[in-house]
User: What shape does this take?
Amino acid sequence: MRIDIVSIFPEIFEPVLGGSMLGIARDKGAVEFAVHDLRDWTDDKHRTTDDYPFGGGPGMVMKPEPIYRAVRELASRDPRRPFVVLTCPQGRRLDQRLVEELAAKERLLIVCGRYEGVDDRVRDIVDLEVSIGDYVLTGGELPAMVIVDAVTRLQPGVLASPASAEEESFSWGLLEYPQYTRPASFEGRDVPPILLSGDHKRIAQWRRLEAIRRTALRRPDLLASADLTDEERAFAERIIEERSDQAKGPCSD
Ligand code: SAM
Assistant: This one.
């Protein structure tokens, strides 16, 4: 997969893209990153990328011309058509399903907004606007890094064990089960004995139930679309009921 990023702050990406797992993924050739300075597509001596909003109002708006030129030229540099993403708090909210969709593309081109956002005509050359959550950041660089990180770790050969991506939170439509490592006993807190049993079938069953329990307790909203058997759904409902009974507390009459 190839990922192009267009930003007015290209220098802030290298420490993230070059380090840790993303750097290893790049070195292995699992993903190719290229970060571009939007100012390279300006045509005035000040390399201007923003201007005042028509109609007045606070802040500046990113001009359409440099973004159009950048997207068109970068698209033409590679025979694979890029899927163009605009980082935007008004976009589709990023979740693991969207990460999987983006990870399946051959090529992504991510445009990072700044200031009050981009001239609305930029939306005509964008395939998808993506938000990383219902809050407003100063720019699209952190969202772009979030997208790149989440998408890269799903590329073949990046994770040491592909099963870890399959079992993680959200991949089953559930949160992940609790994880433990050594020591087996720590300050009086013991690891659940089943995990030390070596019985992989029972461990898998325990993990599945714990994933359902954790989801029911922390994110019951996810259960509606999770793939559960009737028995598992009844288990989840019981957990939710027990919790609301506990919340009501002891009967006072
Ligand atoms: N005025 C815009 C609005 O109200 O929708 C917000 C602009 S924000 C200050 C500047 C840029 O940061 C946006 O164009 C976008 O690229 C990026 N950005 C901010 N918050 C974001 C979020 N939650 N998800 C994705 N991108 C975001």
Observations:
- The chain has two domains: 2-152, 185-248.
